[in-house]
Amino acid sequence: MSRRNGRTERRQRAKPVHRDGPARRGTSFRCVGCGLDVPMWAPGTAHRNHCPTCLCSRHVDRAVPGDRASSCGGRMDPISISVRGEGEWSIIHRCGACGVMGANRVAGDDNPLALVRIAVRPLSHLDSVR
Ligand SMILES: [Zn+2]
Ligand SMILES: [Zn+2]
Q1: CB atoms near residue 60 (< 10 Å)
Q2: Is residue 86 part of a domain?
Q3: Closest-lying ligand to the alpha carbon of 57?
Q4: Which residue in 70, 91, 105, 118 has the most C-beta neighbors within 10 A?
Q5: What percent of the chain has pLDDT over 70?
Q6: Domain residues for 94?
Q7: CA 10–ligand 2 middle distance (angstroms)
Q8: Would you call 104 exposed, middle or buried from its count of C-beta atoms within 10 A (0-12, 13-18, 19+)?
């Protein structure tokens, strides 16, 4: 007969876990690409919807930026840059979950290096020997 009633596991008391404070809702979001906490406000745009560092976004809007009408929640990776007439840059995002694409205006503090990297990405494929 082995140990009788040998339950030695320590009982874990259920602690209330505060992971995201309720006060932070609506003021920042966690980037799905690099994990950065990104403040919602941004220079030059009313709705920041992508990370200024890695430019990843999240599929939360359906038709209008900021409408938060989509329940997809997939990660949207920047795939291209579009430049309008007066030099206004937009990032083209594609959702990795459902494949939908959308254009988002760049914000004033977006990482310029990351923007340029996306813009020249088609060229970098030509240069496969590094
Ligand atoms: Zn990021
Ligand atoms: Zn999606």
Answers
A1: 18
A2: yes
A3: 1
A4: 91
A5: 75
A6: 26-129
A7: 43
A8: buried
- Ligand closest to the CA atom of residue 102: 2
Between CA 71 and CA 55 the distance in angstroms is 21
Ligand with smallest separation from the Cα of 36: 1
For residues 125 and 74, which has the higher predicted lDDT (pLDDT)?
Answer: 74
Model pLDDT for residues 15-69, shown as the tens digit of each residue: 665 554 444 456 888 999 999 999 888 887 777 889 999 999 999 988 777 788 9
**Ligand 1 centroid, distance to 95 Cα (angstroms):** 15
Is residue 20 in a domain?
A: no
Number of domains composing the chain: 1
Cα separation, 102 vs 90, in Å, equals 10
65 token code pair: 């930026």
Assess if residue 119 is contained within a domain. yes
